[in-house]
């Protein structure tokens, strides 16, 4: 089967609306090789296949194992930050996940609710008098970033530069030349690693009631984490703890503003918000393709043989629009019952921060609807600037909005 060329899927029009392409792949080539700007892979697009692939032990997450695929794709500086539970298989994954699962227990996350509400209020207090905002920079990105930094124990005076570093990684491929982009990302990786290693050292000398201190205790006194795992896990929690939530807040806002009847329903019935969040995640999730897997042996999906050694991408956003599982899947319906999406993944790599992400989304979107009357896009939807199509994330570079001050 010939690979689908990058020119057919990684374009500006694809970045603006990938769902027609996902529908064609799902219908005509539900399992197909695709040549991307970063690496070639097999894409799995139907819901049943996607859900099965997310739990298939033959599809390994250990891309730093034999073959060193991540080093080849993302460069020599990536391993120090990315060799963590996201890129590991059981039993290593199980050991690492156990170490941090208690910090994300629903009861502990619920205790963060007042702090999340406080941050939301502070951000909106700055926005409300203006009558306009750039909602990504002013709200969607700083909200989850401040929450995860508080949880980890990143000092307030450091949070701005840490945010700036992570945004270089997030926006890679947006406007810079490829060689400049790679150099910028690799430099930031080194800076982040140096900073996080120093923060761990400082917390070891002066522990506090935060997650990094708890991980250090596990590392030093229980021998359950190596120093490398400690720093890499801190990076994973920092980046994953804000990136997808920020992009989701932007995507959800655009979805509601371009579906005014659904927005009106939520304004009239705010108790519908928890269910609406799940539908908004299904409709336009921030992680269109699950992080890569590597086939450790020949596997078959949809009658297509995927050779051993192939990189496999499970297209979550295509699966979440599969008409075999969702009626009128391309319609936003905040009243949809039993959404059953896989936006948070499935199986042992199911998102550990799901409770925190849902809380931030419910409090954040609820506050936007209450405090920004007449909220509307500041530019036509087709003029919104998005992350490049080759980005692993689906999100916005900017989200200008207007409202009644």
From TrEMBL:
Instruction: List the SUPFAM superfamilies.
Output: Cytochrome P450 (SSF48264)
Pathway assignment: Antibiotic biosynthesis; vancomycin biosynthesis
Q: Does the keyword Heme apply?
A: yes
Q: Which GO terms describe its molecular function?
A: heme binding; iron ion binding; monooxygenase activity; oxidoreductase activity, acting on paired donors, with incorporation or reduction of molecular oxygen
Note the Pfam families from the entry: p450
User: Does the entry feature the keyword RNA-binding, yes or no?
Assistant: no
Keywords per UniProt: Heme, Iron, Metal-binding, Monooxygenase, Oxidoreductase
Q: Could you tell me which InterPro entries the record lists for this protein? A: Cyt_P450, Cyt_P450_B, Cyt_P450_CS, Cyt_P450_sf
Summary of the function given for this chain in its UniProt record? Involved in the coupling of aromatic side chains of the heptapeptide of vancomycin.
Q: This chain belongs to which protein, by name?
A: Cytochrome P450
What's the source species for this entry?
Amycolatopsis rhizosphaerae
């Amino acid at each position: 089967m010939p690979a689908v060329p990058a020119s057919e899927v990684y374009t500006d029009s694809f970045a603006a609306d990938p769902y027609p392409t996902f529908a064609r792949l799902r219908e005509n080539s539900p399992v197909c090789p695709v040549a991307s700007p970063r690496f070639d892979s097999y894409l799995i697009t139907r819901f049943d296949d996607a859900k099965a692939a997310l739990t298939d032990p033959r599809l390994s997450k250990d891309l730093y194992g034999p073959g060193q695929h991540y080093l080849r794709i993302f460069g020599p500086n990536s391993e120090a930050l990315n060799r963590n539970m996201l890129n590991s298989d059981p039993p290593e994954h199980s050991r690492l996940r156990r170490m941090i699962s208690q910090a994300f227990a629903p009861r502990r996350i619920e205790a963060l609710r007042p702090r999340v509400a406080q941050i939301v209020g502070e951000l909106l207090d700055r926005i409300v008098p203006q009558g306009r905002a750039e909602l990504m920079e002013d709200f969607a990105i700083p909200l989850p970033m401040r929450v995860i930094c508080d949880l980890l124990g990143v000092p307030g005076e450091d949070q701005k530069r840490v945010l700036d570093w992570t945004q270089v990684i997030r926006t890679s491929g947006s406007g810079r030349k490829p060689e400049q982009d790679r150099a910028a990302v690799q430099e930031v990786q080194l800076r982040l690693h140096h900073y996080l290693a120093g923060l761990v050292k400082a917390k070891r000398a002066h522990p506090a009631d935060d997650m990094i201190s708890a991980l250090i205790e596990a590392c030093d006194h229980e021998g359950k984490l190596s120093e490398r795992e400690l720093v890499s896990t801190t990076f994973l929690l920092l980046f994953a703890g804000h990136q997808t939530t920020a992009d989701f807040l932007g995507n959800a806002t655009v979805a509601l503003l371009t579906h005014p009847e659904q927005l009106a329903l939520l304004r009239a019935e705010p108790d519908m918000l928890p269910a609406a969040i799940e539908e908004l995640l299904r409709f336009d999730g921030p992680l269109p393709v699950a992080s890569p897997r590597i086939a450790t042996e020949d596997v078959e999906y949809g009658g297509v043989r995927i050779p051993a050694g192939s990189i496999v991408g499970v297209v979550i956003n295509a699966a979440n629009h599969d008409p075999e599982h969702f009626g009128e899947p391309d319609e936003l319906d905040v009243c949809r019952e039993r959404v059953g999406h896989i936006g948070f993944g499935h199986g042992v790599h199911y998102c550990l921060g799901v409770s925190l992400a849902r809380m931030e989304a419910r409090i954040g979107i609820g506050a936007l609807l209450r405090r920004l009357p007449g909220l509307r896009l500041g530019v036509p939807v087709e003029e919104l600037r998005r992350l490049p199509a080759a980005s692993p994330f689906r999100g916005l570079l900017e989200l200008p909005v207007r409202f009644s001050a």
